[in-house]
From TrEMBL:
The keyword Chloroplast applies. HAMAP family: HisH (MF_00278). It comes from Olea europaea subsp. europaea. L-glutamine binds at residue 139. This is Imidazole glycerol phosphate synthase hisHF. It catalyses: 5-[(5-phospho-1-deoxy-D-ribulos-1-ylimino)methylamino]-1-(5-phospho-beta-D-ribosyl)imidazole-4-carboxamide + L-glutamine = D-erythro-1-(imidazol-4-yl)glycerol 3-phosphate + 5-amino-1-(5-phospho-beta-D-ribosyl)imidazole-4-carboxamide + L-glutamate + H(+); L-glutamine + H2O = L-glutamate + NH4(+).
Amino acid sequence: MEAATFASAKQIPTAGSSYSTPSSLNVSGSHSLQCLWRISRKLKPSKGFSIRASSVDDDSVVTLLDYGAGNVRSVRNAIRFLGFDIKDVQTPEDIMNAKRLIFPGVGAFAAAMDVLNKKEMAEVLCAYIKQDRPFLGICLGLQLLFESSEENGPVKGLGLIPGVVGRFDSSNGFRVPHIGWNALQITKDSQILDDIGSRHVYFVHSYRAMPSDDNRDWISSTCNYGENFIASVRRGNIHAVQFHPEKSGDVGLSILRRFLDPKCEITKKPPVHRKASKLAKRVIACLDVRTNDKGDLVVTKGDQYNVREHTKENEVRNLGKPVDLAGQYYLDGADEVSFLNITGFRDFPLGDLPMLQVLRYTSENVFVPSTVGGGIRDFTDGTGRYYSSLEVASEYFRSGADKVSIGSDAVYAAEEYSKTGVKTGKSSLEQISKVYGNQAVVVSIDPRRVYLKDPDDVEFKAVRVRNPGPNGEEYAWYQCTVNGGREGRPIGAYELAKAVEDLGAGEILLNCIDCDGQGKGFDIDLIKLISDAVSIPVIASSGAGAVEHFSEVFFETNTSAALAAGIFHRKEVAIQSVKEHLLKAGIEIRM
């Protein structure tokens, strides 16, 4: 079992406030984090919750069915944050002995069913649910309740709810995976979803179950993404949700609290400016992380990828501690937090203990999605031990990341695929997406403009640009780079995006070296080119300097999210200011 600890009321900042980690908390290249820190947004432990190191009362214990795939750490942290202890399922008997059971399914349908069957837990789980015992399934934990899934299938499910889980149809213009904050349509009394219908919750999935006459009495809410799919079910004490409450901020925490303690009273938030109605555009805070010359892990930001100050000392620009900033951005309303380990292309990522600890401690208090990138590739360490990219990614997931971002390694894989047209299944992109699903894999593209007088001068896709080149060139192609922008490669951003989508990427993080750190706006030409070319979500990055740049990129391109770093770190523009501007402009956002 795991006991929860809480800071005193004086140590708990509220939304909009600032805080820092204790002075003893130091992240350096030579030693690990030395203490825990906790923050709360609005929710505080109820007086009736029992918080003990041992001999806990049964009312404070939650049984967790973790079959070992993906980021379940966030669910654990959310449960502990709310004042409950955790007992892990080790045997089928643990399921039947549970007072309340949470099944946070992550990954692929077939892999999950295979584990449940091999451990002889599938039949016991069905028996537990049929007895109307308190149960909460999350994401795949909902899908597995159905008869079967088309994912790598058909694959037989638990068969408790009529219906087949199928893939979203991307032919209607909706991007797959369905990633982001969307609205719920409550269809009946759901208990745990009280007052949630006006708010956004976080989804990340490529497959969904559809309403039918046979399963209609199970459905407690639906969500619209090109079609109405099942967002949650309830029958008696049985609950399951397609979205991730542990990643849905204070809204999600309130859902978990209602399940864990149905008698609790939740303080209602003030009415939102506008009721959630559809998938929201996301505002993402990015933290470029690296070790400085003193060995400390710091957040930095470059100008066209140069992160050193223009001083005699030429030191690495230090804009703060990664755990502190991530926590503050969560309080400020960031929809996601992205960590990019910008020296990961040359370092051994699993040897980067401080970076892994940053993820672990961040996930204890930040209840929105997090992405980590840098160095995700096959690697052989100094002792000759070989690590696959899948092992590297798995450690990031176990440490609290929801998605991994692949850069240079995806470029090499795309080049080979473009030449041969053959999917080998050996690239990091293919390996990770096969095990964890393509929604867990982001490809980071780092292109730079190459101006042309004639678009036919190159074999790669070129576009007419808004701002001519230095010699009046009206066209440009976007050359991809690797190793932190240091090396150009013989492939364009357009060709790379198309290739990685085929290879299993679920999202594209689209940077632009020319715009990086300039504060003059996103490269609209580039973002429009790529977002029109692929059917997976695209995140616009590089160049934001004012709130107007965010509305511009959302109005003029099909990007799903916009990311910024320096303007948030330097407090030139607040996340809340960006969202208020977008709201006034009529753009759907999460408030």
